[in-house]
Amino acid sequence: MSNDVEIEKRRTFGIISHPDAGKTTLTEKLLLFGGAIQSAGAVKNNKIKKTATSDFMEIEKQRGISVATSVMAFQYSGKQINILDTPGHKDFAEDTYRTLTAVDSVILVIDCANGVEEQTKRLMEVCRMRKTPVIIFINKMDREGKDPFELLDELESSLDIKVRPLAWPIGMGDRFKGVYNIYDKNINLFAANKTKIATDIVSLSDINSSELDELVGEKPAAELREELEMIEGVYDAFDRDTYLSGDVAPVFFGSAVNNFGVKELLDTFVRISPSPRGRDTDTKRVEPSDKKFSGFVFKIHANLDPKHRDRIAFLRIVSGKFERNTFYNHVRLDKKFKFPNPTSFMAQDKSVIDEAFPGDVIGLYDTGNFKIGDTLNEGESFMFKGIPSFSPELFQELENLDPMKSKQLEKGVSQLMDEGVAQLFIQQPGNRKIIGTVGQLQFEVIAYRLEHEYGAKCRFVPKNYHKACWITTDNEDQLKDFMRAKSQYLAKDKDDNLVFLAETAFLLQMAEKDYPDLTFHTTSEFK
Ligand code: GDP
């Protein structure tokens, strides 16, 4: 098959949600439809459980599960669907943000009772930054939840995106009768545990016909008619281009655990979601149809066995064709590498592949050569842009407890940072190491791994920083003034960029006011 056909077939996306909204359940149902798994329960919830915070091995075991399910590929309706898993646990949010750089679209799961939750907001911010097309699935309609109109308003106001319902629920909780598909003008009557063959879907050429009353009852039918009229009045007609540009999110309703509304979601997804998209590099934009192979590393997973230091680097293919045992340029190191055992991931199976195409994600065994954000390609040299770092929320200074093991500590810290476990900021004088994370768990992970994998002992001293801000300016004099005044709050990140460690939101505001020509960024993606 030609590259173009392979590219057009692929749909690479991520499912995101606040923990417990139903991401794992929905993923599992999608895999069932795709025939990638045979029974429910096959997809392990890779949620890092709360009780696990004090038990590092338990976390590692759970992370092991998350490697196996990092990418789940299946065929559906002539398409190859690649689902990239995103950890729901807040402490692993960085990981999720980076995974979102490797997808072409997203399905966002919302719990109909909880509406927009904390993690939902943050994840959507990342999607908005990248203009990633989003489809919203409002889940758990078999339970009593918020009024659907209220939910839509909440989505628009707190996620700062326009929405467009493509389906509409008839009642909810005990009164849940089913979903009207606005796009296809049919009704899917609710029944628990729906199977693949949707026999309960009834076409309705006219929602004013009495058939609707017979199907769902007079009162619900009247309500549906009224609500549909309101929808058509309030929301613009669905337009695929505004979805693809990330401006409007189509909305579906269903109940993942009952397999209800999932097929409709999937059928619409394969029709409207984008095929693999290009990516920007430091010199040009690379399109999937470009002949030469290119890709970037967005995730690195360390071996769980401390005796083996090898890791798996996850590479998203952007253009051309990747082939096994072929030399490619590792652009940052300016060295050529070939890969005898590149792997693909199919639900819980891993297998060695000979070739892979744009949109695919493959695992490359690595002995420490890759960092997150690295480009692998053939032909001319360029680097993919846009694996952003986000300001951490917790900061602690790392102190070496065993001066005899300084070298091991340096090496360990550097490798853990390459893997993206946390961010390192170096402060002068004294080369002090400030580690920034989004969750407490990472500090435990770092201390444990430094000790068990590198034989180095450390201790963390909490620092009261509010945010790390990257600074840009055209006004060199003002920057110099700022650096003189704030020297004790300055640090350098891994790429030697200047960072302001602001102690409070107020002090950050003051800095913005006092140094108007400096711009303070809470993500590193501003170049
Ligand atoms: P995740 O944390 O987002 O991956 O959420 P899970 O898929 O693990 O689901 C969290 C809980 O919600 C589990 O107990 C599910 O069984 C339940 N759940 C998922 N979908 C539904 C649904 O449609 N209705 C109801 N009532 N419960 C659901």
Automatic annotation (TrEMBL):
<keyword id="KW-0342">GTP-binding</keyword>
<feature type="binding site">
    <location>
        <begin position="17"/>
        <end position="24"/>
    </location>
    <ligand>
        <name>GTP</name>
    </ligand>
</feature>
<dbReference type="InterPro" id="IPR032090">
    <property type="entry name" value="RF3_C"/>
</dbReference>
<keyword id="KW-0547">Nucleotide-binding</keyword>
<dbReference type="InterPro" id="IPR000795">
    <property type="entry name" value="T_Tr_GTP-bd_dom"/>
</dbReference>
<dbReference type="GO" id="GO:0003924">
    <property type="term" value="F:GTPase activity"/>
</dbReference>
<dbReference type="GO" id="GO:0016149">
    <property type="term" value="F:translation release factor activity, codon specific"/>
</dbReference>
<dbReference type="InterPro" id="IPR027417">
    <property type="entry name" value="P-loop_NTPase"/>
</dbReference>
<dbReference type="InterPro" id="IPR041732">
    <property type="entry name" value="RF3_GTP-bd"/>
</dbReference>
<dbReference type="InterPro" id="IPR035647">
    <property type="entry name" value="EFG_III/V"/>
</dbReference>
<keyword id="KW-0963">Cytoplasm</keyword>
<dbReference type="Pfam" id="PF22042">
    <property type="entry name" value="EF-G_D2"/>
</dbReference>
<dbReference type="InterPro" id="IPR053905">
    <property type="entry name" value="EF-G-like_DII"/>
</dbReference>
<dbReference type="InterPro" id="IPR005225">
    <property type="entry name" value="Small_GTP-bd"/>
</dbReference>
<dbReference type="InterPro" id="IPR038467">
    <property type="entry name" value="RF3_dom_3_sf"/>
</dbReference>
<protein>
    <recommendedName>
        <fullName>Peptide chain release factor 3</fullName>
    </recommendedName>
</protein>
<dbReference type="Pfam" id="PF16658">
    <property type="entry name" value="RF3_C"/>
</dbReference>
<dbReference type="GO" id="GO:0016150">
    <property type="term" value="F:translation release factor activity, codon nonspecific"/>
</dbReference>
<dbReference type="InterPro" id="IPR004548">
    <property type="entry name" value="PrfC"/>
</dbReference>
<dbReference type="InterPro" id="IPR031157">
    <property type="entry name" value="G_TR_CS"/>
</dbReference>
<feature type="domain" description="Tr-type G">
    <location>
        <begin position="8"/>
        <end position="277"/>
    </location>
</feature>
<keyword id="KW-0648">Protein biosynthesis</keyword>
<feature type="binding site">
    <location>
        <begin position="139"/>
        <end position="142"/>
    </location>
    <ligand>
        <name>GTP</name>
    </ligand>
</feature>
<comment type="similarity">
    <text>Belongs to the TRAFAC class translation factor GTPase superfamily. Classic translation factor GTPase family. PrfC subfamily.</text>
</comment>
<comment type="function">
    <text>Increases the formation of ribosomal termination complexes and stimulates activities of RF-1 and RF-2. It binds guanine nucleotides and has strong preference for UGA stop codons. It may interact directly with the ribosome. The stimulation of RF-1 and RF-2 is significantly reduced by GTP and GDP, but not by GMP.</text>
</comment>
<dbReference type="GO" id="GO:0005525">
    <property type="term" value="F:GTP binding"/>
</dbReference>
<dbReference type="InterPro" id="IPR009000">
    <property type="entry name" value="Transl_B-barrel_sf"/>
</dbReference>
<dbReference type="GO" id="GO:0006449">
    <property type="term" value="P:regulation of translational termination"/>
</dbReference>
<dbReference type="GO" id="GO:0005829">
    <property type="term" value="C:cytosol"/>
</dbReference>
<dbReference type="Pfam" id="PF00009">
    <property type="entry name" value="GTP_EFTU"/>
</dbReference>
<feature type="binding site">
    <location>
        <begin position="85"/>
        <end position="89"/>
    </location>
    <ligand>
        <name>GTP</name>
    </ligand>
</feature>
